[in-house]
Design goal:
Number of domains: 2
Number of strands: 2
Largest sheet: 2 strands, antiparallel
Structural class: mainly alpha
Number of helices: 3
Strand content: 5-15%
């Protein structure tokens, strides 16, 4: 998948190439502080389980669970990379 906008200073457009530091660089360029960025990253990580539980509870009957599981698995693989730059 390729994004329509870049992330970070290195102009990364491909989702697999984007790491937490690229998102942090983008946040800094948008005048967010390092602490604000770190707080947002922590919130995403801590709220993820509840968000997936809520989404699952609200899905219509017959929703393809393979799709839900694939999205969740992809998120879980990438969320560990969501660390602010030091």
């Amino acid at each position: 998948m390729k994004l329509a906008m870049r992330a970070g200073r290195s102009r990364h457009y491909r989702v697999p190439d984007i790491l937490g530091r690229h998102l942090a660089e983008t946040g800094l360029a948008a005048a967010l502080s390092r602490e604000q960025i770190a707080r947002m990253f922590r919130e995403i990580q801590s709220d993820a389980e509840k968000a997936f539980e809520t989404a699952l509870a609200e899905m219509r009957s017959g929703f393809p669970m393979a799709l839900f599981d694939a999205v969740r698995h992809g998120f879980e693989q990438r969320v560990g990379r969501l660390t602010p730059m030091t």
